[in-house]
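Problem: given the chain below (280 residues), write out its structure.
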Amino acid sequence: MKKSTHIGLGFRRDFAVELLESDSVKPDFIELAPENWMGIGGYWRSILDQAAEKFPITSHGLSLSIGSPDELDISFVKQIKQFLDEYKIEIYSEHLSYSNCNNAHLYDLLPIPFRADAVKHIVERIRIVQDILERQLVLENVSYYTPVGAEMSEVDFISNIINESGCGLLLDVNNVYVNAFNHSYNAEEFIQSLPLEQVKYMHMAGHEKVADDLIIDTHGQPIIDPVYELFEFTTSIAPNVPVLLERDFNIPELSDLQAEMDQLRTISSNQWSTNYATKG
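Solution.
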């Protein structure tokens, strides 16, 4: 039987109530950051409960800091597990980066050196997290603006971590586009070189070009045509997985977000239907 396409939307407090009450936007699922919702009560707990009744939920964390030199915060990971269990959340994704160092939380996602010792360090931490969560961890390829101490390529770094740890890959197509532009590599060749059989999930988003040679990953603009084209290429070779539209600020009318989700659905449905028929 053909597998249907699932297109989701990031759940933001800016439009949470409107999303629950409106018929102008109809995601197949929503995604939220556990850190923004764990341990809350009152009004926003009620909103979260209503959202959980209306939509399946996936999660995309902010604070795991999988690449940090600091020790893993085991207590935090256990809190994440409790939250995931409570809301029956299957997918827990995070960033292949770090944000904690020397007991300080840095309000940014910093790139990890593309090195063999970093691969070993991260793989060990992933295994610990997965054991605690009793779930596969899914890690996202991140945008970065300068490589740090690289001894291997970005694609080899990501692939080694995915293959050695048994975690899944969250393929952020916009991040590939941003990095390919900023670091002058071929985005399609990069995607072809990833362990695509381990992709569990995709992200799509907008960005901002701030100079002739620099794009910033902002999640605050509509998706541009070249990123849609890269998404079309990606869905032609990657498995049928959930696709999430991210929009973190500069929020438009919900009908505009629905239009973007519709375009993602059209592209992915066409590609995955063709692939299904070919493989059938």
